[in-house]
């Protein structure tokens, strides 16, 4: 049931703190360290892995993009993220030293499952992150990490996405410790920060309702909208624009903020809404320059950043501040407002937000 919420999607957005807590807390042993029971690598086996592919579709692929960065840092090997429908036809280099990580809420997506089978037949080890116990993907994998999101009813994925991110953070810390690429004090500090994320998500949801409604009203009649970001913020922008497209039917595109000037900036006209996610310290200043160049072409710019970046107000029409966490964790925090913007734009337009047109919850055709 919707338990007092107007729609499943809103209920599921609000369930994110609990889903995140469940995904983490069930994995902590009595000493408070991460224990992943269905992941059975020995130290020698993890040391032998020399390449990782992450394969998924849609929102799960966006989680995989963040996961790529997390695992690159944790394992110090090459990590490639690919789309389920492309991976098999891309002649991937796979052998027994390749780890293929499959991400799927339903565990039944046809393109993703076919990728799993292909990789397995070439000798790769398969590790899956899925939300459905006993799903096809779960059954056919060597290693498993369940997200504890609970059933996701709304077609648009919200709590499955944020718990997939958490799964990657847990996996990175766990494998990094096993491989000894992450020092123990770094491990403790990152794990403590991860444990504090659910509380911040709660806070960000509360603080995002009014801004999301105001932005929804502002963008409701636009023909086209851009989400910009760099690095991890770009991946959040991809997820943000997918949510907006599938629910509001507004044409929304995500661009790496620095790439816009290589063509796409031609689309910016007076009043074009541009929502910029700017949370990553490495690229913050460059992102500000990118904002200035769209502003100069007349864009209406909304900046989403952390409260230590008040200077963003000088270059944006509207600034929204979200909780500040270590950069690697910001994708969980950054996606909340875009989820709510998509939700309110959809309902203000009178769309069926839980069942958007042309879409099914589980895509079982290739
Ligand atoms: C978008 C959405 C889809 C799914 C995709 C993969 O909101 O829900 O993009 O993420 O179809 O589905 P799963 O994760 O079940 O493999």
TrEMBL record:
Main enzyme class: transferase
GO MF, any single term: glutamine-fructose-6-phosphate transaminase (isomerizing) activity
Record's keyword annotation contains Transferase: yes
GO cellular component: cytosol
Main location: cytoplasm
Subcellular location: Cytoplasm
Subunit structure: Homodimer.
Descriptive protein name: Glutamine--fructose-6-phosphate aminotransferase [isomerizing]
Species: Amphibacillus xylanus (strain ATCC 51415 / DSM 6626 / JCM 7361 / LMG 17667 / NBRC 15112 / Ep01)
Organism lineage: Bacteria, Bacillati, Bacillota, Bacilli, Bacillales
Gene that encodes the chain: glmS
């Amino acid at each position: 049931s919707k338990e007092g919420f107007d729609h499943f999607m809103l209920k599921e957005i609000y369930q994110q703190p609990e889903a995140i807590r469940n995904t983490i807390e069930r994995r902590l042993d009595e000493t408070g360290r991460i224990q992943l029971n269905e992941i059975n690598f020995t130290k020698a086996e993890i040391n032998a892995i020399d390449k990782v592919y992450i394969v998924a579709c849609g929102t799960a692929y966006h989680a995989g993009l963040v996961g790529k960065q997390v695992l690159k840092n944790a394992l110090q090997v090459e990590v490639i993220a690919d789309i389920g429908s492309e991976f098999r036809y891309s002649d991937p280099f796979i052998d027994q030293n390749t780890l293929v990580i499959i991400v799927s809420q339903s565990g039944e997506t046809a393109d993703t499952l076919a990728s799993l089978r292909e990789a397995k037949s070439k000798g790769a080890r398969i590790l899956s992150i899925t939300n459905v116990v006993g799903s096809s993907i779960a059954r056919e994998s060597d290693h498993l990490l369940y997200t504890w999101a609970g059933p996701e009813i709304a077609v648009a994925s919200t709590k499955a996405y944020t718990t997939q991110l958490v799964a990657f953070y847990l996996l990175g810390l766990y494998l990094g410790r096993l491989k000894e690429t992450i020092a123990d004090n770094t491990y403790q500090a990152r794990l403590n920060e991860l444990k504090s994320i659910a509380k911040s998500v709660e806070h960000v949801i509360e603080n995002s309702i009014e801004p999301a409604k105001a932005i929804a009203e502002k963008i409701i009649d636009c023909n086209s909208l851009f989400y910009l970001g760099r690095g991890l913020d770009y991946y959040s922008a991809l997820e943000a624009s997918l949510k907006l497209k599938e629910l509001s039917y507004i044409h929304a595109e995500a661009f790496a903020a620095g790439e816009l000037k290589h063509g796409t900036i031609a689309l910016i006209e007076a009043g074009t809404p541009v929502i910029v996610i700017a949370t990553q310290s490495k690229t913050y200043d460059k992102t500000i320059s990118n904002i200035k160049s769209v502003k100069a072409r007349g864009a209406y710019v909304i900046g989403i950043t952390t409260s230590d970046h008040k200077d963003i107000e000088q270059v944006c029409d509207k600034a929204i501040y979200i909780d500040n966490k270590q950069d690697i964790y910001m994708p969980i925090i950054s996606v909340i407002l875009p989820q709510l913007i998509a939700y309110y734009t959809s309902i203000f337009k009178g769309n069926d937000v839980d069942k958007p047109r042309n879409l099914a919850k589980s895509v079982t055709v290739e």
